[in-house]
Design brief:
Layout (H helix, E strand, L loop, with lengths): L10 H18 L10 H8 L5 H18 L3 H7 L15 H9 L4 H9 L1 H14 L2
Helix pairs in contact: 3-5, 3-7
Protein name: Endonuclease-reverse transcriptase
Organism: Plakobranchus ocellatus
Keywords: Endonuclease, Hydrolase, Nuclease
Length: 133
Amino acid sequence: MYGCEAWTISKQTQKKLEATEMWFLRRMLRISWTAKKTNDTVLEEAHTTRLLISKIRKRQAIFFGHVMRREKLENLVTKGMLEGKRSRGKQREKLIEGLTDWLKAGKSLEAIEATKDRKKWRTMIANAVKQGT
């Protein structure tokens, strides 16, 4: 998970991470791949919920808040406010868009404004972690 703060997690990437997490759980619990056990029963046996995506999102949100509170170049790059033309084709998903969806903040500007108040930002992150992905 080194460097996961800068990842953009698409739906395809999220599915791959969830599949990898299930593979890890099945290996730790020594459940054979031929055993007919659903993912829900494996999660119940492990006494856990899906943790990988929520941990990545939490780390991203903490890092995003840190970057937004600083008025440096990283702030401009993360906001996507650089000069120049956009590339052709479908635009790539931005980190801020994924976080606003996860935080249920509505618009990205609301999330950026929330980062200025550290207590408000931390409560937003805590609420999103409680709700899960």
